[in-house]
Amino acid sequence: MTTSQRYPTASAFTTQHPKRWRRRRRRSFDHKLYTPMVHYIISHLNILLVLSLPAVLCYRSTSTKKICSGTENGLNKLEVHEKKVERLRMMYANCTVVHGNLEITYLTPDDLKDAGISDLHFLNDIVEVTGYVLIAHNSIKNFSLPSLQIIWGDKKFRPTSDQMVSQFGLLVLNNAFSTFDLSNLRAIHDGSVGIQMNHRMCHWKTIDFRQLLGDNYEKRLIIRDSYGECYTDAVCDSSCLHCWGSEKRQCQKIYRNNCAPQCSSGMCYDVESPQFCCHPECAAGCFGPSDSECYGCSTMRDNGKCVDKCPTPELYDPITTQYVKNPDGKYAFNRDCVTTCPAHMVVYKDGCVSRCPENFTADEGDNVCRPCQGACPKTCIIEQHVNSLNIKDFIGCTKVDGVIEIRKDTFIGGALLQPNGTFIPYDPMTPAQLEALSSVRQVTHYVLVQTEKLKSLNFLRNLQKIEGRKLFDSKYALYITHSFSLQQLGTISLTSVLNGEIYIASNFDLCYIHNIPWNKLIASTHSVAKVRKNREADVCEAEGRTCDMSCDLSQGCWGPGSEMCFECLHWRLGNVCVDDCSTDGEYQASPKQCALCHPECISCTGPGSRNCTKCRHVSLDGECIRNCPQETHFENPATHVCEPCHANCYSYGCTGSGNFVGIGGCNRCKYGVFDEDTQSITRCLRELSAERLCSEFPDLENYYWTVPLSTKIQTEVAHAVCMKCHPACKSCYGYGVDFVHYGCDCLNYTYRETPTSSVCVLQCPKNTFIRPAPDAGRADECIPCDSQCDGCIGPTSTDCVECVTYKDYLSDTDRFNCTNVCPADRPYISADRLCTDINMDEVIYEKYEVNIVENYG
């Protein structure tokens, strides 16, 4: 199968596009768990293991792609048994996604010659690298990664520990390349790009790094001491300006130039038609507008589509008020949504992880992380006796893969023989240090105790099983002898010895064990227990060292006290024998076995939080829980019962059943109604969109919907809000009084402000008159008065209530005309601004003369 068949090239994406690749995290060895001998072996094989392991860890996620683990050697020049090129071939042949880092360093022409090849063609299939790409100190002439499209930079390379040094997603350092072809590279998602001391890579001078790094690419680009031997300008093919080499196929992929402003991703798929935007969830460009036509996904890919998150495996059912399985649910695995996690991963919450987090564990055969019951499992590999050098390795261990040997040397000190024939001395221990063994539950080989320093083996109180895969003296799984100070065993949890015999002898001060039914512990029918020459039973009784009265004395015990019984006379609660199970917080789990109620129960009739008779905190559908689900329920303070939020609260939670934002209602609305008077959200709505308008609600006819703009509204409404129209509007689609811009349907009157535009008003303005609407249901119209009118009842100057300038009465009527020029037959103006044919100035003058004559004549 060719590369183009297995994974489409950039040009092939016009007709098809690949699914995202699955990636995996390579596990590393925890050397702290190994004994000194294993440390020695690892120290000699470590380099070989590190370099050969990725090839072993490669796996196919589908029939058409292969994921391989990368390396993390940095700039270290490691010596390996395999030849360099053969090692790279083993790791990366047919690999399409490198999970980790791709490091190609210190290659010479002789390395290629020894491999019988002229180039590293087996790297040609690599399409993505999840970590960084390091290409450094190579003296070969040409190098290419022709299919590489995306460097994610999830892990970045820092050349030194100096925090001021950039962290690189791509570092090309000190190479002798004449050409370094990355002709399909589209994006370096995270990390800087470093190009240093590459004197002959002349075509890289033409590269538009904004295409690879996005805006502000200068802050992520470091070019130093390169192109020193580029004496002439590099020439691209005539079809392009930016290229990795001179051939047409080596033209750089351009997809960020001249994109239209509405392209929120900053990427478009047709630079000749910049309005063809990539979907916002795309990374590295696209070959179409949808979320299924991206070269890479900025967040997650689900079934070929780029999404912001994977569909969760469980959904809350508001009808049953329970979490139910989501038939479309998936887990996040790197940047992919998968229905099941790979076999080497475990499920934690909604994702696939390489190991469970602290305080969680996955049982054998089950890859789901669940909270640990008690101490979390931790396996320790122990092949030497307990001593001051390895005692710290036992801390937190629940399973010892090997042996537990406590000998005289443990407490007097000694030396350990190393594989190289030398000895490492170790100091004496104290008995108190053996508490490091207290978490051990299982031992794969055997347990041996032979010392005069111990009075009890209580530090093994959690030991449940001895497997006996390897036996002491080829016979014994539990061997305790010549421990002259030992008074009690204290191994209260021991229930099974799968293979091998038990030998407890010559412990002259050991009591309590005489009636223990050892055959109940031994699983093998061919094995027996040999318990002899310990302290005599009658001597122990005379000394008062006998089992507690709550024990079934016929079964013996591990030591003094009610928690040491092999079997209880009446009932057992945990490790303690009790008279009954009547105390609050306890119930009868099985014959002779009490159990504690669920922590959320004050009292109960059985296990779990659904068998409580009284809750400690709150209840939800018969189940006692600590807190009500914040997204969907609130606590009724009177009943301490979780009650559902109003459906219109969606998943934003509430403090009561109300359908509003505030105390007693929703914490936030998805869709809401805003009240101008109270400046608050008075109601949450179930649905609101361009198809479902505010006006479709009977009481919201004069409201319009919009996205929440103010910070206050945004805190109360997530998606859309109904705002009241202008008071002059009966309905609208925006806040304003004209129909053209805001769709305002007038409530009372329309008023034509200009010959081409009308607005809605509550009252007609001054100097207008009301013209009744021709149709019922339509608003009356405010018509401007004549310019000579001061108020009017009609449109002409004869319809004025008062005149602005002069009033001219029409002959023989009470009507008048308003004018700014009196007519020729009434050219004179009276004191009250009436047009008249009498010259009032002459009349006044004549009266003045008459008065003079009469008075002085």
Automatic annotation (TrEMBL):
Its main location: membrane. The chain crosses the membrane at residues 33-57. It catalyses: L-tyrosyl-[protein] + ATP = O-phospho-L-tyrosyl-[protein] + ADP + H(+). It is a single-pass type I membrane protein. SUPFAM superfamilies: Growth factor receptor domain (SSF57184), L domain-like (SSF52058). Its EC number is 2.7.10.1. Residues 546-659 form the Growth factor receptor domain. Residues 94-211, 396-521 form the Receptor L-domain domain. It is found in: Membrane. This is receptor protein-tyrosine kinase. It comes from Trichinella zimbabwensis.
